[in-house]
Amino acid sequence: MSNKLLGILALVGAPWLYLGFSLETLYPHLAEGWFTGVWGLLYISGWFCSVVVLHRLEVTGTNMFGKNILRVLMVTLVLANLSNLYQVISPNKSVLFWVLDAFWPISNLVMLVVGLTVGATKKLAGWVRFVPLLVGLWVPLAMLTRLLPVGIPLPGNIVGLYSAFAWSLLAMVVLTTAPQKPNPARHPAQPLPA
After folding, report:
1. 133: closest CA among 54, 67, 15?
2. Cα–Cα distance measured from residue 57 to residue 41, given in angstroms and rounded to the nearest whole number
3. How far is CA 10 from the centre of its chain?
4. Shortest CA distance to 77 belongs to which of 54, 37, 105, 97?
5. Which of 87, 108, 159, 179 is such that its CA lies 20 to 30 A from the CA of 194?
6. What percent of the chain is predicted at pLDDT more than 90?
7. What is the pTM of this model?
C-alpha cells in the first residue's frame, strides 16, 4: 500500500475513539459489545496505518532503538486489535480477552516513547515532529481527567475530542509527508555516474 492510501485509512480511523464513546453514551445498549469491537478495530487499524508510514519514513531514527520502538508499537496495536476482534465475535470475555485488551493502554504508553523519540531525532521538519508526541500525550491527559469529580461529563468529551484531533493530525502528517530521497553519500557501493 502506498503512504497516501495508508494516510487516508488512518484519517478514516482517527475519530473512532470519540465517535464510539459518543454513540455508546447515547445508546448504552451498544457499549461493551460487538459495536465496541467494531469501532475499536477501525480506530486501532487507522493508527496502525499511521505507524507503518512513520516506520517507512524512519522518523524514530535508523539505530536499533529507533527501528525497534516502532515495531514494538505495531505488535502492541495488533494485540489490541485482536481484543477488538474477540469482542466482535464473542460476547463472553475470558482471561485471553483481558490480556489482549491490556494492549490498548500499553500501545498508548509505547506511543508516548515514540513521540519523544521522534521529537528528539528531528527527522520531521518544524512543528510536525511534535505531532507523534501530541498523540502520545493522550495517556497523561486521560489520567489527569480522572482527577476531576465524578459525574462531570466533561472528561470523556475532552479525551475523546483530543483523540480525534491528535490522531487526525497524525494521519494528515503521514498523508502529506513525502519520503526523503536517498542520499548518494549514504550508499558508497553505488557506482558514480560517468
Report:
1. 54
2. 24
3. 9
4. 105
5. 179
6. 70
7. 0.86
The per-residue DSSP string of 144-155 comes to HHTTSPTT-SHH
- Joined grid coordinates for residue 140: 497523561
Cα separation, 27 vs 25, in Å, equals 6
pLDDT of amino acid 188: 45
Q: Quick one: pLDDT at residue 142?
A: 83
Q: What is the mean pLDDT of residues 60-79?
A: 96
| 111 grid coordinates | 506511543
Number of residues that make up the chain: 194
Q: What does each C-alpha distance from 47 to 34, 73, 95, 126, 186 come to in angstroms?
A: 20, 10, 25, 22, 31
Do the beta carbons of residue 193 and residue 26 sit within 8 Å? no
Please list, in sequence order, all residues whose beta carbon lies within 8 angstroms of the beta carbon of residue 4, skipping any fewer than 6 positions away: 175
CA distance 136 to 167: 10
Q: In terms of Cα–Cα distance, which of 106, 10, 104 is closest to 54?
A: 10
Per-residue pLDDT tens digits for 20-29: 988 998 899 9
Phi, psi angles (nearest 5°) of residue 146: -70, -20
